[in-house]
């Protein structure tokens, strides 16, 4: 078996996001590392409380990383030897923890720093919109004509645009009038992966430079850059892309193509939601694909990974 591990970005946080891992002994250290970042509040309690706070930028980025790391720890011996890891947006940072290149406590601290830098750079009134059913060239032209930016390439006919929320709302209406099948403003309040966040890239680059790196263990999954889908072999190059993706458009379609080329025949999305699993079903039609959120128990995930 060759497993592609996909690490979720923001948007799918929900009160039950830790139901499968909350009591897993292997995951307790991850929850403990996160508590100081929430003023002593346990991330499991914070998630269960629900509400708008789950979609605040800082809270959401930390929670997504906690979910990925906790689940990966909890899978334990069921984790396959041959695997590849790719993360979407903040999931790109989580991937560095999955492959063992960053200490978990350091990684969660970086998630907080990343969100803080993004908030400081963007200010209020900005966001993202997801649009499906238009070519990326057409979508980029539509965005540029309204002072917005193409932020994510999900597929040949699917992308995400960043800019002022009031402009995004009208852009979505125009996209639907132009034939888009779906056009919605997302529950994210930062224009991630656009030039509007250039200052955040600079700040996060400095934070990464000040954080110790760890050599990955021999059995670690291969790491892909969430910016362009290229395998990360040189740490310096990978860290630079990790900083750049905050203010540059990311090519998730290239990440999925790299998973296919690596021979992934099974795909598991770690983190809240199932958006990446849904996209993977189109890009890797021969693979067996699930999101952790689609299982009723951690034992069910483990059994699925152990199936021939």
From TrEMBL:
InterPro entries per the UniProt record, alphabetical: Ac_transferase_dom_sf (IPR001227), Acyl_transferase_dom (IPR014043), Acyl_Trfase/lysoPLipase (IPR016035), Mal-CoA-ACP_Trans/PKS_FabD (IPR050858), Malonyl_transacylase_ACP-bd (IPR016036)
GO MF annotation: an example: acyltransferase activity
Malonyl-CoA:ACP transacylase (MAT) domain ranges (all copies): 6-304
Keywords on record: Acyltransferase, Transferase
Name by which UniProt lists this protein: Acyltransferase domain-containing protein
């Amino acid at each position: 078996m060759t497993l592609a591990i996909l690490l979720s970005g923001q948007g799918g946080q929900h009160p039950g996001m830790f139901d499968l891992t909350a009591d897993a002994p292997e995951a307790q250290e991850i929850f403990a590392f996160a508590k100081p970042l929430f003023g002593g509040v346990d991330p499991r309690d914070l998630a269960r409380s629900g509400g708008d706070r789950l979609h605040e930028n800082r809270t959401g980025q930390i929670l997504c990383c906690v979910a990925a790391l906790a689940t990966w720890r909890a899978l334990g011996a069921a984790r396959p030897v041959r695997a590849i890891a790719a993360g979407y947006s903040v999931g790109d940072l989580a991937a560095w923890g999955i492959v063992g290149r960053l200490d978990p406590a350091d990684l969660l601290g970086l998630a907080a720093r990343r969100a803080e830098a993004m908030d400081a750079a963007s200010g209020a009134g900005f966001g993202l919109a997801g649009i499906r059913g238009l070519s990326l060239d057409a979508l980029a032209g539509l965005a540029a004509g309204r002072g917005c930016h193409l932020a994510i390439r999900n597929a040949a006919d699917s992308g995400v645009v960043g800019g002022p929320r009031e402009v995004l709302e009208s852009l979505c209406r125009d996209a639907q009038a132009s034939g888009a099948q779906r056009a919605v403003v997302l529950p994210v309040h930062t224009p991630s992966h656009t030039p509007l966040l250039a200052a955040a890239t600079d700040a996060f680059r400095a934070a990464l430079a000040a954080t110790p790196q760890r050599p990955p263990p021999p059995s670690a999954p291969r790491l892909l850059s969430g910016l362009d889908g290229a395998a990360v072999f040189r740490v310096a190059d990978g860290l630079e892309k990790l900083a750049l993706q905050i203010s540059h458009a990311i090519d998730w379609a290239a990440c999925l193509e790299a998973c296919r080329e690596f021979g992934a025949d099974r795909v598991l999305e770690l983190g809240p939601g199932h958006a990446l699993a849904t996209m993977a079903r189109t890009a890797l039609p021969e693979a067996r694909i699930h999101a952790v959120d689609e299982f009723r128990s951690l034992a069910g995930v483990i059994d699925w990974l152990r199936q021939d």
